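Case study.
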Amino acid sequence: MNTIPLQLQVNGEAHDVLVEPHWTLLHVLRQQLGLTGTKENCLEAECGVCTVLLDGKAVNACILLAVQCRGRTIMTIEGLGRPGRLHPLQQAFIEHGAAQCGYCIPGMLLTAKSYLDEHPGEVPDPAAVREAIAGTLCRCTGYQKIVDAIRAAATRMREPA
Amino acid sequence: MAFQVHQPESVEAAIRLAGAFGPDARFLAGGTDLIIQINRKRCAPQHLIALGGIRGLCGIEAGADAIVLGALTTHKAIERSPVFAGPLAALAEAARVVGGHQIRNIATIGGNVANASPAADLLPPLLALDASVSLAGGRGTRRLPLAQFLHGPGATDRRDDELLTSIVFARPPQRSATAFIKAGRRRAMEISIVCVAALLQLDADGSCRTVRIALGAVGPTATRAPQAEQALRGCEPTPAALQEAGRLAAAGCAPISDVRASAEYRRMLVQALVPRALQRCLQRIEAYGR
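After joint prediction, the assembly is written out as follows.
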């Protein structure tokens, strides 16, 4: 199999990897870089657990070829915050009990971040939040706490630091 | 899955590769459909020609008379562009209901058009806007009306060595508006059961001057509804006239029954949604006029 040398910018670090042409970004993140916070489930862009940010925008890593990410920046859940310095979304998910079983949450947080970054200074109403996360499914509990947490984070992010 | 990926940096290089590999190659734009089709073994191209590295294929050029959309313009860019507020609203309304944000952030208008799915949501508004597609190939460039480009499910007028580079349409005329309505079982992440787009222009006396009605998911390609358009042209847009346009559009379309809906139900939806889309156009013309 012919491999392709590729430099990926992930969470602010450059990674040189050798990829096969058909490898998805999800495969490279989990198998080559050991970033298993990005989850793997439907592999057809239906469920959203593999959501990462590509140049700041939420995308499904399961159907994105790694070679398509040449020269672009990627953020995974590992890059969103650090212990002791959580992102406002992570803090709000904890405070509202929105982490639930946890499986969809990495994708949920990055889906929410992408949407809030696209609408700076806004606190979306519940219907807008539900539309924003339509591509990221929770199958364990429900969306109410997630919606509450995203709105709380939006409120906090609007306040001057 | 065994394919090679090529990453050309110019349209010319992409066309050369496509010419060399012929039917063994596929262009890769956002890949939100193609990669899934490859994973499902519905197709097995040996070469993917990735277009992401080509400059100048992306972007919305809003001129005084015409709008040009580069083939790699994403659904999200259309949805968020101020160009599609006002009389061009139908295209943004359609872009906004495709997949979730993750898909719309990467799926392109060129991919949606070139895939030629009967249920592609951007096609009815583009047909209502009387859009044309520009193709660049080994034998030069050409432009043809979208309606002629679409041949059937997944089939277009594009030759193997031709790349769809842009989509162009004229700015809608004075006293006009567009609207798009999609019917699915839920409001997001749905493939359309039926979708309807309309462009309506009124004359100074309030009668219908330009009428374009386009339907999705009720035939082998998205199509216009010529009988309904003709019946309404020159007429006052009364509720009865809009209902009649709906009836004619339903009678003139050719839906099939499949996992999503029966042919009968699709016809009922067309009959209901065509008048609703036209009514929305009327409300918008009034709102823009103020």
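Observations recorded in class. Chain A has two domains: 4-79, 88-158. The interface with chain B takes residues 1-2, 4, 21-22, 24, 43-46, 48, 51, 54, 57-60, 63-65, 67-68, 70-71, 111, 114-115, 118, 131-136 of chain A (CB under 8 Å). We will return to this complex in the next lecture.
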